[in-house]
Batch of 3 targets.
Target 1
Amino acid sequence: MSGGNFAFKQFTIMQEHCAMKVTTDACLLGACAPMSGNPISRFLDIGTGTGLLMLMLAQRFADALIDGVEIEPNAYQQAMHNIAQSPWSKRLHITNIDVCQYKPPYQYDAIICNPPFFIKSLKNTHSALATARHDTSLTYTALIDAMQTLLLPNGSFTLLLPADTHAYMENLSQKKGFYLHSALHIKHLLHSPVKRIISTYATMPCPYPTHNELSLYTQPGTYSQAFIALMQPFYLYL
């Protein structure tokens, strides 16, 4: 799911100027986050990219105000265009800034982020792609520090990360006063290894976090019913 522009049922993502394209993983994050029951009136999307997550949240939460921050100028311009063409442009606002420098006059009920995936790994020579994929421009520690500043006391944040990074993030979050509340373990097929984890954290300790699994396919080329239920409001051909 990359390359050209991507049409959803209620909006279209233009992505030719973005290093990171629309992915199935990101769509799942937009479809199920936040995984908490608290009422949401104001969201923040950190690392907006194409604006995909902001638009999915706008479709799901009819009254919510949604902000985004994006450090990469071309991605920022692309997201601005995508949001301007959407039905929800009046509720959405993007700032071209490093989240560590972002100082809004309010705090958020929920923050959603698809952060850089790779820690201390070989960087991509394409600078925009390296910014999107690696933790050199936004370390995980800096990300959690930003959550402490930007979240309301009873707020939550939801992340999409590789499975092998989840334990590191859970440990780091707990040291910073955030506790895992729920985790969705994403697999390609039922018996495949877990590929990604979508996890929600909050300041309230949670002795028994909820763990669920989602298989994308029942067999190659056939979406699972659980995946269809999540994505049917968005994908054109489901």
Target 2
Amino acid sequence: MRKILISALSAGTIMVWGLSIMAADRAPFTIAVSEYPSWSGTFLTACDIGLIDGAEGKMGPIEKKWNVDIVVKDTDYDSCITLFVNGNVDAACLTNIDSLAPSVTRKAVAIIPTSTSAGADACLVRPGINTVKDLKGIVVRGLSSSVSEYAFDKCLEALGEDAKAYKFESLDPVQVGVTLQSEKIQAGITWNPVVMETLKADPKIKRLFDSSLIKGQIIDMVTASRDSLGKEGGKDFACALIDTYYTVCRLMDNEKTHDKTLTSMGKRFANLGLKEMQVIVKETQFYSTPEKGLELFKGQELPKVMKDHVVPWALEKGLVEKNKMPKVIFGNDPSAELCFDPQYIEAATKKK
């Protein structure tokens, strides 16, 4: 049995490593998580240090607090999208971009923003490519019809280029790094930790541009099914996820636990060390407090991003049809296909 380690945090918060409690008296809920700083870095780290258990039938202290059994499914990002669309999970860690099309067939609610990409998505190139215009005629590889292609197109736009003049073809984000190193491709776009791993593995590869050009457009979130939220314990499930996220963020923001938390998170990123993780979290800017999350969901910036950038891009790429465009609401509207709903953050932060 793992050691139980208790650390006192600010405002009297208690963190427990290794404690597990038997299951709730209602059906479990499942969240799909992929490798990304504010996703696996928070939810899988929360399992590692015992805040939640993550396996069906056992509960950590946060699950016990909300009387909900959370099953954490660790998978790749593309599978997160598929699992959510097919109804195989109750929630998934998705971007605002990749929550839009699934909501056409399965009503979705963004319950919390976790971060915004501010350099974490990057276009990497091999020697000989020195400017954006050098990419013309070269096939750039990355996850198509998703956040990588969005980042590529919108960064080109920010640089004054027409994305239609460039070639983009699909490739798994992890394979982008591998094939760049093997010189089978000349350019690709992927995200951390693959970006950092690739640059570390081959110094000849360089970052041509990244999502710092479009900060605030790629919003990493937890998206839940409206049907799942309506089940018995659904709201508690959402609140428990939010509670878990902010608890890990408090650990990360606390001087006494900052280094240890980043080191634990680094184990989920190809064993990146503390210094590397400090770079990682700068390039992925966390909405680390309820105030920051509520400001985004209640403010004017995100509606503008969705209206002016995400929706037109999704239409152009054929991800959604114009006559089937999902209704997007900032607030709570059961008739809407996709809601960015602050009520769950508000509910989660009221319960001590």
Target 3
Amino acid sequence: MQLNTILLKEFKDEMNTTRKFLSSISEDLFEFTPHEKSKKYGELINHMLPIASWIPAITQNAELDWSKVTPPGDLNSKAAILKQFEANVVIGTQALKATNNDQLSEYWTMRNGDTILFSGTKLTAIRRYVFNHTIHHRAQLGVYLRLNNISVPASYVASADDKLF
């Protein structure tokens, strides 16, 4: 069984759900924050945006050092955000298609300079830092939407705004 086939299906499903959430955003709220310790709405969206494109950094390398990465600039329009999201999904999809079980079993390290943040298999890194990370921030975005009376899309079955039954 090819693990990348399983990952591709899950990636597609999670990105489809994330697309619904990003399609619900409002440019008028980019400065909104629900709490002083929370990211602004626009910052949260821009933080979520590149996650899908991290897959080749995992599959094609032995490590990632965040101290050597220049973060992308923030996008401030819904159209630009959705366009970049789609491009990032293509990058992630291509990287998953190009990997195999042996590569996914290799160890990978994420660090920030001398501080090791994660060391484990590439499979675990993809599940944790791409899939689960996306789900985590998508849930946060759902709270931001709810607090601003914007319909929250269904994630897996239904939401209070998107009822199936």
